[in-house]
C-alpha cells in the first residue's frame, strides 16, 4: 500500500550512503521534491558533509535543514525519562528509543514549515525505530503521508543498493562497499550495535563492537571520585560546576568511557514481536541512573518511591514502543514530575573499572532522620511500643485467616 | 502490653551475648521454660558453641534445637524469590528479609512440637525484622504469644546489658564488652551492616564494613569466566557441574567474593516508616540475579516478561515488609512459577572486579529466532509489509486524537 | 497479501447468508476444499439448518462439523473469566470476547484432524473479532493460513453480496435481502448489537435492539429472591439445586431476562484503534458478577482481593484484545485460580426491575469475624491500643515529611 | 500511652451525646481548654444546637467554631475523587472516607489559629475513621498531640457513658438513652450504617436502615430523564442549568433518592485488618459515577482510560486507608487530573427504580469517529488491509512460541 501523489517529502537524512540512496529513490520513485533534515543529537559525526552531499544530490539549499538538537534532546527527552529511572526489561536505558520522537517532532515541524505532505525515514521493516518514527509522525500530523523505503523498495541486497548508488552517481566511501559487520546507532545518550556478527546470542560480542567505552579490563586501575548535583530530579552539575544538560551528559560520557562504564549485552523483546540482541553503551547515562536513584533515596517518600517503581516498567515500555507523544506517557510524566519537586542535593560516586559506586548522598530536603534511625538513644523520637500495635494490626487478617484454617497465609 | 502467663517459650537463639541475655531475661521475667532454636542459614558461624552456651545457661538438652536449614533456605525461599528477579527499591536483593520467614516457620514448628505457647526473638523495635518474625508467627500460629524483649525491657544501654550479663553469669567475650561499631546480619545469601558508624549517609562506608567480599580494587586483574545452568527458573549447576541449591549458592558466593562482586551501599525505606542506611554484600546472589535475567531473556515470552516486571516491585515489597506467609505472596508466586516452566538453559558470564558481564546465553527452549531477526535475507519468515498495518492501527487512536485537536498525544 | 495455494480450509460457519456467501467465495476464489464448522455456544439458533445448507452448497458430509460446545464454553472460558470479576473499561462483561478463542480452538482442532492448511472466519476488518480469531489460530497452529474474506473481497456493499448469492444459488431468507438495522452477535453469555442505527452515540438505543432481556420498565413489579451456591470461585447451584455450568447460566439468563437485568449501552475502545458503540445484554452474567463479588467479600483475604482487583483491568484487556491463548493470560489465571480455593458458600440476591441486590452471604470458609467487628464487648479479641501504634507508624513517614517542610503529604 | 501535658485541644464536635461526653471527659481528664469544631458537610443536621450545647458545657464563645464546608467538600474532595472513578473493592464509592481528611484539615487549621497543641475525635478504636483522622492530623501538623477517647477511656458500655453524662449534667435526648440499633455516618455524598443489627452478613438489612433513599420497589414507576453537563472531568450542570458543586450534588441526591438509586449492602475489608458489613447510600454519587464514565467513554483516549483504570484500585485504597494527604495520592491525582482536560460534554441518563441508565453522550471533544466505525462505506478512512499486518505482528511472538513447542500461549 504505497502512498500516492506525494508532492514534497521531508527525509531524515544522515548524509550516509543508505539515506543518500533513499533520497535518490524518493526522487525517482515519487517524482517529488525532497527536503533533507539532519540533526546533531550527539551521534559524533560532522554535519557539514551531510549538507555538501545533499547539495551534490540536487537538493535546493532552502530545502536543507541542519539542526543542533543536543540541548533539547537532553533537557526535554533524556532528563524527563531519567526522572523515572526507566529501564526496559530491567536493563536497557532506552538510548535509541528516546531519540526517535525528537527527530520525528522536528521532521514534522519542518514539514509544516515547508508545506510538505510526506515524511520518510531510513529505518528497516523489522525494527522498533520505524514504529517510533511513524507513531510520532501520525500523532503530530495525522494526515501526513509516510514513506518507509526499506519496507517498499526492492533494494534488498547490498549489491542492489550499491548498484543503485553507482547508477545515480551517489558517492560511496570505500569502507561502505562491503557489508558492515554490524549496524550502529548513536546519539549523546548512547551507542547501540546489532545484527550480523551479533546475531548469535551465545557468541560473545567482539571487542570491536564497543565504540563508546573502553573495556573495564583496560580502564585505569584507580578510583575516580565525583559528585553530581541535582535539582528537582535533574542533574545540574558535576563536582560543583554547574553545566547545561548536554554539556553535563557529554562530561559524564567522558568519565564513563574512560572508566569502562555502561556496557550492556542484551537480548530484548521488540515491539514488532521478535527477540533481538543488542550491544549498548550508555556511559554517562549509567552513571546518571545510579546517581539519580541515590538522590531519590534520601529525598523521596517511601510510597512515592514505590509508586514510581511500580509504574516504571509501563513507562519504559511506552517509550520503547514509540509512544512518547501519547496521552499515557504524558499522564505518567505528570505523576513522575510531581514526585521530583524535592529531589535536590548531591551524590558522591566512585567510578572504577566498570563500577559506579555510591559513597555518599546529602540534601537540604533529606527525609533521612538520624534521630529516628539511630541505634543510640533517640530521646523519645520513636516509641518502640508503637511497633507492637503496628505489627498486630498488620497481622490481624492473617491471624483471622489462620484461625479459619488457612495457616501461613494459605488461600 | 506485655503478654501474660507464658509457660514455655521458643527463643531464636544465636548463642551470642544479646540472645543469651534475652534467654536469661525471659527466665527471670516470665518464670517460664525456655526452648532455644539455633539455625544454620549459612551465617558462617559454628553452631556447637550455641549448644554449649545454652546448656551452660540451664537449658535442658531436650529443649535445645539446632538445625542446618541451608538447603531449605536456598531451595524454598531464595530460589522462588530469585525467579521473580526481586529487587527492593530497584537495588536491594532482600538478603535479610528472605531469611526471617524460615526462622519464624521453624520456630513455630518447634513450638507446636514441644507445646510452647510463646516465641521470642532478638530483633529491635525500630527495624523490619521484628515485623518479619512476628507476621510469620501470627500467620502460622494465630494464638501464639510473642515476646520482643528489645521492645519491652529496660536494658537499653550497653552498660545495662553487660551488667545484666555479669549479674547472671553469662560469659562475655572480650570483644563484646564494648559497643560494636555497626550491627551485622548474615546468612548464605548475604551479609548486611548498619547502624553506628554507618548512620551518616554522606560518609563513605569504611572498608572494614565489608566482610563477605574483597574490594573491586583488590580483586584480581583477570576475568573469570563461568557458566550457570538453569532448569525451570532455578540454577542447577555451575560450569556444567550439577550442584544442590545451597552448594551452588556457596560456590557463587566464593566466586563473587574473590571478584569483588555484590556490594551495595543503600539508603532504603523501612516498613516501620523511617529511612535507614545499609551496606549489603550479596556476592553469589548478584551473579545469580544477572544470570537469571539473561536466561529469561531468550526463554520468556515478551508479555510474560513484562507482566513479571510490572509485578516485581509489589512482590519485593511484600517480602521486604515480612508478608512471605500471605495470600498475596502465594498468588504472585503462582503467577511467577507458571512463567518459569521453560526458563532452562545456560548463561555464560565474565566476572571481573565488581562486574558481572553476560557474554552468552543458549537454551533448548529459546524463543530467539535467527530466521526472523536476521539482517540477511529471511526467506519470507517475516513480511515487512505487515509492519505498516501494525503501525497504522497502533497509531489510529493518536491520529483520531490529533484530528480532534489533540496533537502529539495531548489530552 | 492474500495467502496462496490453499488446499483445504475450515470455515467458521453459522449457516446464515454471510457465511454461506463466504463458503462459496472460498470455493471459487481459492479452488479449495471447504470444511464447515458450526458451534452451538448458546446463540439460540438451531444447528440443523446449518447442516442442510452446507450440504446444499456442496460440502461433503464428512466435511461438516457441528458441535454443542455450551458446557465447555461456560466451564472452561466463562467461569475462569468470572473468577477474575473481569470488566472491560469498568463496565463490559466481555461476552463476545470470551467466545472467540473457543471457536478458534475448535476450528484448529478440526483443521488438524482433517489435514486442512487454512482457516477462515466471517468477521469484518474493522472489529475486534478478527483479531481474537486470528490470534487464537496463530497461537495454536503457527503455520496456519488465515483467510478473512471481509478484508479481501470486493463484496463491500449489500447489493454486491446479494448478487453474488443469487449468482451462486445461495438461498436468501426474505428478511435478509435488505440491510439489517444493526448487527448482532450472541452466545450463552450475552448478546451484542452494534452498527447502523446505533452508530450515533447521542441517540438512545431503540427498544427493538434489546433481544435477550425485557425492559426494566416492563419487568414484573415484584422481587424475585434467589440463592447462588459457589465452590472454589465457580457457581455450582441455584436455590440449592446443583446445576451443570451451562444449565446454570441458562437458568440465570432466564431469571435476568424476566427481571430486566443486564443491559448495557456503551461506547468502548476497540483494540484496532477506534471507539465503537455497543448495546450488550448479559442477564445471567450480570447476576453472576454481583454474586461472585459478594461471595468473595467474606471468603477472600483483603490483600488477595486488592491484588486481584489491581490486575483485573489488565486481565480484561488481554481477553478483550484476543490474547486468551497467551502466556500472560495463563500467568494471571494461575494467580486468580490460586485465590479462589476458599471462595465457597452461598449468596442471596433480590432481582427486581434491572436491579441485582445482595441481601446475604455465608460461607464455611468465612473470614468475617463477628467477634472482632462487633460494637458489643469483644472479650479481648481486639486490643484497641494496638490501633495507636498502627496509626503512628503508618503516619511516621508523613510526619518526617512534614517536619522537613512538606506538610500535608506535599512532595 | 496517653499524651501528656495537653494545654488546648480542638475537638471534632457534632453536638450529639457521644462527643458531648468526650468534651467533658477531655476537660476532666486532661484539665485542658477545649475548642469545639463543628462542620456542615451536608450530614443533614442543624448546627445551631451544637453551638448551644457547647456553650452549655462551658466552652467559651471564641472557642466554638462552626463552618459550612459543603462547597469545599464537593469541589476539592468529592470531585477530584470522582475524576478517578474510584471504587473501593469494586463497589464502594468512599463516601465516609473522603470526608475525613477535610475535617482533619480544618481541625488543624483551627489548632494553628488558636494555638492548640492537641486534637481529638470521636471515632472508635476498631474502625477506619480513627486512622483517617489521625493520618491527616500528623501529615499536617507533625508535632500535634492526638487524643482518641474511645481508645483510652473506660466508658466502654452504654450504661457507663450515660452515667458519666448524668454525672456531668450533659443533656440526654430521650431516644439516646438506649442503644441505637446501628451506627450512622452521613455527609453530602452519602450515608452509611453499620454495627449491631447489621453485624450478621447473612441477614438482610432491615428497611429502616436506609435513610437517604426510598426503596426501588417504592420508587415511582416512571422514567426520569436528565442530562448532566461536564467540564474537564467535573459535573457543572444538570438539565442545562449551571450549578455550584454542592448544589449540584444536592440535586443529584434528590433525584437519586426519589428513584431508589445508590443503595449498597457490602462486606468490606478494613485497613485495621478485619472485615465489616456496611449499608451505604450514595444516591447522587452513584448517578455521578455512571455519568462520568459515560462522559469519558467518548472523550478519553483508550490508553489514558486503561491507565486510569489500572491505577484506580490503588487510588481508592489510598483514600479508604486515610492517606489523602500523602505524596502518593498527590502523584496519582496529578496523573488523573492531566487526563481530564478534554472530559467535557453532556451525558443523558434515565433514572428508574434503582437503575441509572446511560442513553446518550456528546462532546465537542469527542474522539468517537462515525467515519471510522461505520458499517457503511467509510470512503477510505480506514484501510482494512492494515488489520492483517496489525494482527500478524501482534501474533508473531505467539507463533514463535508455538513453533518452539509452546502451543496456545503455553509457558
UniProtKB/TrEMBL annotation, chains A, B, C, D:
Keywords: Amino-acid biosynthesis, Arginine biosynthesis, ATP-binding, Cytoplasm, Ligase, Nucleotide-binding. The keyword Protease does not apply. L-aspartate binds at residues 124, 128-129. L-citrulline binds at residues 92, 97, 128, 132, 183, 192, 268, 280. SUPFAM superfamilies: Adenine nucleotide alpha hydrolases-like, Argininosuccinate synthetase, C-terminal domain. PROSITE patterns: ARGININOSUCCIN_SYN_1 (PS00564), ARGININOSUCCIN_SYN_2 (PS00565). GO terms for molecular function: argininosuccinate synthase activity; ATP binding. One of its GO terms (biological process) is argininosuccinate metabolic process. The keyword Nucleotide-binding applies. It comes from Falsiroseomonas stagni DSM 19981. Homotetramer. Belongs to the argininosuccinate synthase family. Type 1 subfamily. It is found in: Cytoplasm. It is an enzyme of class 6 (ligase). Pathway: Amino-acid biosynthesis; L-arginine biosynthesis; L-arginine from L-ornithine and carbamoyl phosphate: step 2/3. ATP binds at residues 12-20, 39, 122. Its EC number is 6.3.4.5. It comes from the Bacteria. Pfam families: Arginosuc_syn_C, Arginosuc_synth. HAMAP family: Arg_succ_synth_type1. Residues 182-399 form the Arginosuccinate synthase C-terminal domain. This is Argininosuccinate synthase.
Amino acid at each position: 500500500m504505497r502512498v500516492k501523489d506525494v508532492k514534497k517529502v521531508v527525509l531524515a537524512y544522515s548524509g550516509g550512503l543508505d539515506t543518500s540512496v533513499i533520497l535518490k529513490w524518493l526522487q525517482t520513485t515519487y517524482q517529488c521534491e525532497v527536503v533533507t533534515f539532519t540533526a546533531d543529537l550527539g551521534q559524533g559525526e560532522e554535519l557539514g558533509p551531510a549538507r555538501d552531499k545533499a547539495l551534490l544530490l540536487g537538493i535546493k539549499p532552502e530545502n536543507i535543514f541542519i539542526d543542533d538538537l543536543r540541548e533539547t534532546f537532553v533537557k526535554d527527552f533524556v532528563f524527563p525519562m531519567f526522572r523515572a529511572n526507566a529501564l526496559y526489561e530491567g536493563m536497557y536505558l532506552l538510548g535509541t528509543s528516546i531519540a526517535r520522537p525528537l527527530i520525528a517532532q522536528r521532521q514534522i515541524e519542518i514539514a509544516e514549515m515547508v508545506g510538505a505532505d510526506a515524511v520518510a525515514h531510513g529505518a528497516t521493516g523489522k525494527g522498533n525505530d520505524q514504529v517510533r518514527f511513524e507513531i510520532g509522525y501520525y500523532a503530530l500530523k495525522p494526515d501526513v503521508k509516510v514513506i518507509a523505503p526499506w519496507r517498499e523498495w526492492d533494494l534488498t541486497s547490498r549489491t542492489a543498493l550499491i548498484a543503485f548508488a553507482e547508477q545515480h552517481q551517489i558517492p560511496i566511501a570505500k569502507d561502505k562497499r562491503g557489508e558492515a559487520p554490524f549496524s550502529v546507532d548513536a546519539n549523546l545518550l548512547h551507542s547501540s550495535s546489532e545484527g550480523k556478527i551479533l546475531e548469535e546470542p551465545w557468541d560473545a560480542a567482539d571487542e570491536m563492537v564497543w565504540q563508546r567505552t573502553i573495556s573495564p579490563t583496560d580502564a585505569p586501575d584507580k578510583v575516580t571520585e565525583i559528585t553530581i548535583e541535582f535539582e528537582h530530579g535533574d542533574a545540574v552539575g558535576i563536582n560543583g560546576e554547574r553545566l547545561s544538560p548536554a554539556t553535563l551528559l557529554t562530561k559524564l560520557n567522558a568519565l564513563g568511557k574512560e572508566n569502562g562504564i555502561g556496557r550492556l549485552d542484551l537480548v530484548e523483546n521488540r515491539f514488532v514481536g521478535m527477540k533481538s540482541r543488542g550491544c549498548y553503551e550508555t556511559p554517562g547515562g549509567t552513571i546518571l541512573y545510579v546517581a539519580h536513584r541515590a538522590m531519590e533515596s534520601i529525598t523521596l517518600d517511601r510510597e512515592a518511591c514505590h509508586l514510581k517503581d511500580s509504574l516504571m516498567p509501563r513507562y519504559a515500555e511506552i517509550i520503547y514502543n514509540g509512544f512518547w507523544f501519547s496521552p499515557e506517557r504524558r499522564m505518567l510524566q505528570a505523576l513522575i514530575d510531581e514526585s521530583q519537586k524535592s529531589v535536590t542535593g548531591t551524590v558522591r560516586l566512585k567510578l572504577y573499572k566498570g563500577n559506579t559506586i555510591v559513597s555518599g548522598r546529602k540534601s537540604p530536603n533529606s527525609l533521612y532522620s538520624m534521630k529516628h534511625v539511630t541505634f543510640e538513644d533517640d530521646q523519645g523520637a520513636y516509641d518502640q511500643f508503637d511497633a507492637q500495635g503496628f505489627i498486630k494490626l498488620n497481622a490481624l487478617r492473617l491471624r483471622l485467616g489462620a484461625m479459619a484454617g488457612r495457616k501461613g497465609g494459605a488461600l
